[in-house]
Specification:
This protein is an alpha/beta fold. It has a single domain, classed as 3-Layer(aba) Sandwich (Rossmann fold), CATH 3.40.50.2020. It contains three helices and ten strands. A hairpin with a 6-residue loop joins strand 4 and strand 5 (82-87). The protein starts with a strand and ends with a strand. Bound molecules: inosinic acid and magnesium ion. Residues 45, 48, 102-103 line the site of magnesium ion.
């Protein structure tokens, strides 16, 4: 087990690189089976999913395309508070099979917002692919078809995920240790 310190927090190894790679490959193989002939458009949500998306697409053997979007957060005027807007999407989604590629689904509110926004662009179908899911935290119903790993509620970093923008380059996934 290895320990890393990032700012005020200490983390320990949680999911080693080799296991991440195995799980990512298994998810890609399911996409290969399910979406053969559909020329899926992977839509990776930056920043957190960049490493997962890079590994995932290299295990996808069917014709596919990839593009990247970001979410702009701002304080909305509604009672729900923070509204997230999808930015950077130039592709025409009409009739496309879209696979949203996320790093982690926590409450699921980000993903719900993504689906609502992309749904207005008339895709043939929208599928969810997430490296990690915290099932106990999910607040909204989501059909998560492609998930590499389910994890407990603890805060994690590495393999693209950050703590205050740090730690994304760690090859393993680390979980926070109580101080
Ligand atoms: P949600 O809208 O609550 O599902 O939030 C998902 C977003 O929160 C992810 O895209 C991450 O950016 C961030 N997030 C949630 N849990 C973690 C974590 O354990 N480590 C790092 N980022 C996280
Ligand atoms: Mg994210």
């Amino acid at each position: 087990m290895s320990i890393v310190k990032i700012k005020d927090l200490t983390f320990k190894t949680f999911i080693p690189e080799a296991e991440i790679q195995q799980r990512v490959k298994a998810v890609a193989e399911k996409i290969n089976r399910d979406l053969d002939g559909k020329n899926p458009l992977l839509l990776a949500v930056l920043n957190g999913s960049f490493i997962f998306a890079a590994d995932l697409i290299r295990h996808i053997t069917i014709p596919c395309e990839i593009s990247f979007v970001k979410l702009a957060s701002y304080q909305g005027t509604t009672s729900t508070g923070e509204i997230k807007e999808v930015i950077g999407l130039n592709e025409d989604l009409a009739g496309r099979t879209v696979v949203i590629v996320e790093d982690i689904i926590d409450t699921g509110l980000t993903m719900k917002r993504m689906i609502e926004s992309l749904g207005t662009r008339n895709p043939a179908s929208i599928h969810i692919c997430s490296l990690l899911v915290k099932p106990d935290k999910l607040q909204v119903p989501l059909n998560i078809e492609y998930v590499a790993m389910e994890i407990p509620n603890d805060f994690i970093v590495g393999y693209g995920l950050d703590y205050d923008q740090q730690g994304r380059q760690l090859r393993d996934i680390y979980t926070v240790i109580d101080p």
